[in-house]
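Help needed: design a sequence for this.
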């Protein structure tokens, strides 16, 4: 057999294997290492599996999530902060994605300090640089809030450095500072369990660097046609501020996200049952 024919046969076999692997899943959901994304995704997973659907969850960074969905390599992403925080991802990949629904319509980001810090605006930071050690504790460089914070440093002329780390490391720094009553700035957002466990305030942002967003559910093109029942479920997947805060707190409090998500699901099962029928 000619080398070209061998290559074509091998490609066909790989394609068939890939298709077979995808057929085993009703939905492949991608999610980032952010607590609200972890919580919402695992709640959806619990509901779908309870109704007899086969799911697959994969945790990766936001940029690769948007790219994978645009290629059709996965189905759904439940933590798209649009139209502002993730606008660069949407500019690059949005023409090959579909919006299934809006989970939450008051997503807030910004620079956050403990409530004992006696300033109220980003414009006051430079005059208090020494108290903060010239540092803003943030999360990974791939996050939209990281990019907005770099922009805030430039546009406000802040003599500060953003410390990029994980969400866990940022919150550990917050707890340590609070235990010593020290001044600290972190990059914060709502919804998040930090507002349930710490007394915090968001600094005023006169230049509007940190606009409000919706948390949208996006999918690959064609998913709505391939899985209309699941797409309709995601359209109905809407949570109030209180419910979302409770969900995030339940999930973060448990050793495994699924345990907290199932605990929350059992409390509100009658509501969730109306969102999706048993798989036929």
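Sure. Designed sequence:
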């Amino acid at each position: 057999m000619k080398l070209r024919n061998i290559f074509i046969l091998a490609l066909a076999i790989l394609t068939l294997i890939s298709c077979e692997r995808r057929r085993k899943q009703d939905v492949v959901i991608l999610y980032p290492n952010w607590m609200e994304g972890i919580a919402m995704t695992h709640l959806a997973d619990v509901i779908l599996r309870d109704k007899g659907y086969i799911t697959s969850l994969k945790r990766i960074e936001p940029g690769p999530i948007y790219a994978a969905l645009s290629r059709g390599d996965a189905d759904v992403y439940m933590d798209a902060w649009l139209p502002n925080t993730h606008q660069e991802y949407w500019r690059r990949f949005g023409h090959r994605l579909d919006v299934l629904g809006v989970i939450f319509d008051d997503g807030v980001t910004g620079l956050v300090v403990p409530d004992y810090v006696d300033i109220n605006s980003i414009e006051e930071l430079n005059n208090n640089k020494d108290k903060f050690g010239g540092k803003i504790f943030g999360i990974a460089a791939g996050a939209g809030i990281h990019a907005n914070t770099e922009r805030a440093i430039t546009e406000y002329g802040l003599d500060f450095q953003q410390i990029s780390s994980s969400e866990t490391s940022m919150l550990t720094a917050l707890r340590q500072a609070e235990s010593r009553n020290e001044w600290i700035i972190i990059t914060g957002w709502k919804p998040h369990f930090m507002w349930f466990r710490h007394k915090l305030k968001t600094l005023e942002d006169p230049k509007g660097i940190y606009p409000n967003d919706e948390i949208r559910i996006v999918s690959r093109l064609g998913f709505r046609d391939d899985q209309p029942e699941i797409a309709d479920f995601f359209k109905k997947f809407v949570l109030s501020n209180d419910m979302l805060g409770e969900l995030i707190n339940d999930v973060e409090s448990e050793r495994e996200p699924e345990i907290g998500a199932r605990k929350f699901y059992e409390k509100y099962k009658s509501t969730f049952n109306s969102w999706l029928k048993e798989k036929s």
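The longest strand covers residues 97-114.
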